[in-house]
Design goal:
globular, alpha+beta, 12 strands
């Protein structure tokens, strides 16, 4: 009798011990899978593409918006800076290039005209898959070197977006003068004044066709305020078929907020007379 009682008691204790262990294991598993469990978030990244699209006219002489959109889509960008964009211009069949590129890429787009041309408008644009909070268009200066205003006016379009981390971030697309060196220097100084003021802490990415090689004065002027995201060993970007000059860039400011993960010149030689450049930037978690 006592032996049976002892055996029953041991079995009861063992059963309760097993039950407690099972409950503890189940609780730990539930905690690990809980949506409130603390897990390290992967860093946020931005894929930034800069592309002078030559009003969608390729090096084969064909005007083709869809071909340009395909190049953009393959790069999978979050932000795109475009230069030499036509809207309602005779030479491009009165097509609204920005609207068509937006439709074909699924990216929101904004246009920053810099001049009237053949009954339409010509200028810069930005596209993004992130929410747009604000848009501003800025003309860039001429200098006394530009006689009778015979060259094309230049400008910059800046959009403030909600970054992937939920914080605001400014993105600027611009295009510097192609045939007046003094104008390019003046434009670089204007960009610094507009978007890199010492009291402006807004994270900013600048991309564009600067019509200046890396050691030229406009670039050294920009580098007083900005960090170049494109690797120093990157290949040239223009002309697209046999590129000799690296004149297309992605820059950023508030350098503690960014880290360059990757940068490259995309070897596309047909869709435009420039090759696109891509920079992948990681955002700081601070």
């Amino acid at each position: 009798m006592k032996s049976n009682l002892r055996t029953s008691l041991i079995q009861s204790i063992s059963s309760r011990t097993f039950g407690i262990k099972a409950a503890v294991i189940a609780f730990l598993l539930a905690l690990a899978s809980s949506p409130h469990a603390e897990t390290a978030e992967p860093p946020h990244q931005l894929r930034v593409l800069c592309y002078n699209v030559h009003w969608c006219l390729g090096t084969d002489g064909k005007y083709d918006v869809a071909r340009l959109a395909d190049v953009i889509n393959k790069a999978k960008p979050d932000l795109v800076a475009l230069q030499e964009v036509d809207v309602g211009v005779k030479r491009s069949g009165r097509v609204h290039d920005v609207r068509e590129l937006s439709k074909l890429t699924g990216l929101a787009a904004r246009f920053g005209p810099t001049q009237h041309y053949e009954g339409g408008l010509f200028g810069n644009a930005v596209m993004t898959r992130l929410p747009i909070l604000d848009v501003a268009i800025h003309p860039l200066p001429y200098t006394e070197s530009t006689e009778e205003r015979t060259t094309y006016p230049r400008g910059a379009i800046a959009v403030t977006i909600q970054g992937p981390d939920g914080k605001p971030l400014r993105f600027v697309s611009t295009h510097f003068q192609h045939n007046v060196p003094d104008d390019r220097v003046a434009e670089a100084k204007a960009i610094n004044k507009l978007f890199a003021a010492d009291d402006d802490g807004l994270r900013t990415i600048l991309a564009g066709d600067m019509n200046a090689v890396p050691d030229a004065e406009p670039i050294t002027e920009l580098l007083k305020k900005w960090t170049n995201a494109i690797d120093e060993t990157a290949t040239p970007t223009a002309p697209a078929t046999k590129p000799r000059s690296r004149i297309d860039y992605v820059f950023y400011r508030e350098s503690s907020q960014f880290r360059v993960v990757e940068s490259k010149v995309i070897p596309e030689s047909i869709a435009s007379d420039h090759r696109p450049v891509l920079a992948v930037l990681e955002l700081s978690s601070n």
